[in-house]
Protein: Glutamine--fructose-6-phosphate aminotransferase [isomerizing]
Organism: Teichococcus rhizosphaerae
Amino acid sequence: GKGNYRHFMEKELHEHPVVLGDTLRQYIDPASRAVALPELPFDPVAVPKISFSACGSAYLAAQVGRYWIEQVARIPVDADIASELRYRDPPLPEGGAALLVSQSGETADTLAALRLLRERGQRVLSVVNVAESSMARESHGTVLTVAGPEIGVASTKAFTAQLAVLASLALGFGRARGTLAPAEEARLTAALLEVPAHAAALLEDSSEILELAREVAQARDVLFLGRGSLYPIALEGALKLKELSYIHAEGYAAGEMKHGPIALIDPAVPVIALCPSGPLFEKTASNLQEAAARGGRIMAFTDAAGAPALRRFAERVVVLPAVDPFVAPILHAIPVQLLAYHVAVLKGTDVDQPRNLAKAVTVE
Ligand code: F6R
């Protein structure tokens, strides 16, 4: 049941801390802070390429996974929408790895991509939340997200659990390949293990996000901006807002604004920016300042170190716990999902069962 929550989605949003902790404990030993990967169907040291394939939010998790694996393990990675992979016909190297990401393990397009990648000689690893699913059965190996059953149609806790698995895999690959120094591994695993507590702190008081939701609920169009690993989270924010509140939203890479979308900037189009401090902060902040200078209303998620610079031009600044930039996409996923939830509740849409959508899309 929903317990004391109004919707399954609200309950599942509040399960983020527990699910993140449970999932991370499967792959990281809290005492030694070392990543302990399960047996994999390919050797991360020798693998020439990784091809991710997934749909919807799971595809966005895969995109974050690509940034992580490239950054710490230096393996070339592709990430495709499953329904596109089949028709793109990419050249696949002998012994390459295919990673399928799916909550249900039953999504028709992802399953079709799995079969195609397998036929083309790829070693298939699925990241799924359902151990007995079709994808788990048809893969050479499976790693599980420990999210528990997800009832709300919009993926919430399964999404952050996917991120937790992919971050662990990236660190494990980096360790195996020697591209991640032991001290760096310890620092990043420690940062990951702190995420559940930060997530809990963030969920304790969502009054600022509720205030933001009241403004967003008035809008007809909304832009979400992010850079680097926060770019797929901007896409996640836009996807969740669309599917739950039926407000038109787009996610963009912050640096891409000036190549077209900046023409949309208008006081009626709120700009939700994901802009934590870190190596990309100045770049993103300057893109936001350009949007503000053209009348854009900037609503930014950042941390204490990023807040003063953004307050100079942003209408609202929501300060999240300070974390290592490596884990920032996990932490930022939670407020954008919360925002979409609150906007949908304000608009009175069916949060757990949005129109036209199904929990598992088993048709192509
Ligand atoms: C969005 C959402 C969907 C799913 C997509 C893939 O909130 O839930 O985009 O992520 O349909 O589903 P799975 O992960 O079951 O393959």
Notes: The two ends are 31 Å apart (CA to CA).
